[in-house]
Design brief:
Length: 93
């Protein structure tokens, strides 16, 4: 997304390569992951690439069948200055 569409001085680069899956090797809720480190869905913030685009990642769904439930997230935030981590659950009517 260029800077005009992003409404600011920088564009947004939310590329699919910023989303990495790292599942558990076995079944269950804990254990070693396939790629090392903590298991889960990794949303990466990449270094500034000099092209005036801010790197990031997001997951969006158009499903409308999650009416009730318990939604939990365990987040390991980036230690890079100027980054933001958040979890939003919004249902638009």
């Amino acid at each position: 997304m260029d800077k005009a569409a992003a409404r600011g001085p920088y564009g947004k680069d939310f590329s699919l390569n910023n989303i990495v899956t790292n599942p558990l090797k076995g079944s269950g809720w804990s254990g070693a992951s396939e790629h090392g480190g903590d298991a889960g869905l990794e949303l990466w913030v990449r270094a500034q690439n000099g092209s005036n685009y801010v790197s990031g990642a997001e997951i969006v769904t158009m499903r409308d069948d999650a009416l009730l439930g318990s939604f939990r997230v365990g987040m390991k935030l980036s230690n890079s200055s100027g980054t933001c981590g958040a979890f939003f659950f919004v249902r638009l009517a």
